[in-house]
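User: Hi! I'm working on a homework problem where we have to compare a predicted structure to a textbook description. Could you give me the structure for the chain below?
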Amino acid sequence: MMPTLAAFPFSRRRSWISIFRRRVGAAGGDPEAPISLRVVAGILWEEAEIFDLHLERLGQLVECDELLRPDLLTLRARDGAGTVQMAFQDEHTLRLRVQDAILRLDLRRGKPMRLGREGWGVRAGTCGWLLLSVVSGDLVVEESEGKWTLRLSGELLIYRTSSGGVRPQALGSLEACASATLADFQTWAAKFPVVADEYTALRERELWTVWNLVVHPLENFRREVVLVSKGSLIGLWSWDHCWHMLGTAHIDPTLAWNNFLVLFDHQDAEGALPDVIGANGLLRGILKPPVHGWMLGLLEARHDWFGDEHRREIYPAMVRFTEFWFRERDEDGDGIPHYLDGCDSGWDNATVFDAGFPIETPDLATWLVLQLEWIARTARKLGLENDALIWEEKAQFTLARMLEHFWTGERFVARLSGTHEEVRSESLLLRIPLILGDRLPPEALAWCLDGLTQGGRYRAPFGLLTEPKDSALFEGDGYWRGPMWPVATFIFVEAFRANGLLEEANVLKKEYLHHVATAGNFENYRGDNGAGVRDTAIAWTATCVLCFLSELP
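Assistant: Happy to help. Predicted structure tokens:
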């Protein structure tokens, strides 16, 4: 099935320009929305759409079909007369060529500024300009009732710049530009392992997704990294980046490590990471769960390129990050840090959070135990034996406190911080301690596993539900109250493996791969029917695919 612009933004590696169909204010693509030229380098949630693009003939709109490839976007009139082709000359410059029709560019806001005899400039959100230069033919610029329209007959260059610049120049033909872009993608994708025939198309599509989401350094992004999306979620959240790291580790170790470090570039004085960064803005006050030590452990176990130079680079920041949780998020001093918002957990509206805040949950304690253990191992590898002993003791103490605090003898619960009032929930979140394996008593492992294996109440044909269907609080399209999420699937694949349940891990992994192959790449999938919802062409959906594919025989 060929992608459409409502499901897959057209862009290229390192570019901040994308072409997409999105209804402003809505998450994800919309096939009824206009095709828009967008700059995703602004403030989070700002309107990234700069131009709406329409095919015209004799003053009338012409319906067109889309043909989307890594190197070339073609809009073809359904009656056969009229085409537009778009290709990237480089990461900053898009070329558009129209034949046998007119390409109309409706400027969403502002007005164009004349630059020389053949050039125009328009503001591109809060992070720069678009400079337009005619290669051939004509560009007619008109204003009507305060709205500006540009009509192209011929070929046009559109160049993104942060602070203005000289008029862009055409280099080679549009076809040569497309060929160079395709070669870039093929070279990049060839670094990933070959897979069985049944997964070849999925491998190609998700490699294309990740390649398409790479952006060059700009403002808050001080390194080349993978964005979450070039659709709606045009930033990078402080747990997504861990999956971006692991998913690109086979392809480009430098990119993988950049993906991890980029959030630590903005670590604050207390040691906390921002919730999310965009090119021209970042948000603090909300956190994401400290999965980082666990994910670094997976990275070093699977990739020989990760060595002591990486450990030395990140060790001090990981220490500060971990100390933050115990110092700033344990106001009742019980040794068990808490969340102040559901978004802190990554599972924003999970049913366990209906009880209110601040709340202490076993998933947070689990991640901190794993992170403390990673810090202890790393300290020992770096020759910091005294530090290693301190962190090992802290990990053992936190594990003991976690079991004492959350395990009732029958099940895991959460507790309101301060009062320690018990909070029960059917959320899958409470079963994350499964990933601790034999650190847990057998009865706790059995409870965590109950309902997770094939045929269990948390299972759907397409994966694990974040709230079981027989729960009174289950919602098919309830975000973290039912739907299947890629990262939750990944976590529990690893949890099965941590307990020696390799067949269960492989079954869950293959369910996920087959579902994403048929349903497409989405932020999450409805819990009632598996349909993809919210944003589309998402990095961690793709990187989970790549991680799973890399492990298949």
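For your comparison, note the following. The first helix runs from residue 174 to 189. The chain has two domains: 17-183, 291-551. Good luck with the assignment!
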